[in-house]
Amino acid sequence: MALGYVRPARPEDAGEIARIQLATWRVAYRRILPRHVLDNLDEGYLARQWTAAVQEPPSPAHRVLVAVEQAESSYLVGFTASGPADAEALAPEEPAESLGAEVAAVTDLLVEPRWGRRGHGSRLLAAAVDHWRTDGFTRAVAWAFDGDAATRKFLTGTGWEPDGAARALDVDDMLVPQLRLHVAVPTEPAQG
After folding, report:
1. pLDDT value of position 82
2. Which of 30, 38, 102, 156 makes the best surface tag, with the fewest CB within 10 Å?
3. What 8-state DSSP symbol labels residue 186?
4. Of the candidates 62, 60, 63, 64, which has an alpha carbon nearest to the alpha carbon of residue 16?
């Protein structure tokens, strides 16, 4: 078991969050998204977006959390971002009110592949759930690519289930199917 912990992201983490995002996407999504799209992602642009997300979140319930690996030195190895469900969490043609104010949406949950299977994803998810509970959310949703078996397996292994919603993202004229998963937010912290 790795020694690690989760903490709120800081503005100075934005560059490392962007690097982790690119490294993870380029490995995990190389068979899902067109290669030229992955190759042309701009790390600087992503870092600026993460700086804004950390410094100026749309609400107090919008959070970016980072996973830290502790060894001889400490390294950021993953992150998650979530907040109240908005239009991005909806399926096509789904009415805006269908998710409700008590639903949190995960927009990102990534652990750099070389740091996988060391408990970082579970720690990130547990920390997010603690925040969702504090913020009064009773349910959470997350979109996963159909072709991303690792994310689907991780989420379903922690109690998430498909909720029947599906969509396809248009990525450079290629439709990439996704399915939405959901989970009830426990009212009490897990014992253990």
Report:
1. 97
2. 30
3. P
4. 64
Average confidence (pLDDT) over 141-163: 94
Between 152 and 96, name the one with better pLDDT.
Answer: 152
> How much is the average pLDDT of 141-166?
94
CB atoms near residue 65 (< 10 Å): 21
- Which residues, including other chains, have CB under 8 Å from residue 8's CB and lie 6 or more apart? 63, 64, 65, 66
| Domains, the chain | 4-184 (3.40.630.30)
Measuring CA to CA, which residue among 177, 191, 181, 174 is closest to residue 35?
174
Average pLDDT (174-187) is 92
Which ranges in the chain belong to alpha helices (H)? 14-28, 35-39, 43-55, 120-134, 149-157
Tell me the C-alpha to C-alpha distance, in Å, between residue 1 and each of 4, 71, 104, 128, 185. 9, 12, 29, 20, 26
Query: What is the rounded distance in angstroms from the CA atom of residue 6 to the CA atom of residue 114?
Result: 18
CA-to-CA distance for 170 and 163, rounded, in angstroms? 22
Residue 182 CB neighbour total at 10 angstroms: 19
Higher pLDDT, 75 or 141: 141
Across 78-83, average pLDDT: 96
Is residue 180 within 8 A of residue 166, CB to CB? The reply is yes
* Distances 142 to 12, 51, 68, 163 between C-alpha atoms, Å: 26, 22, 23, 10
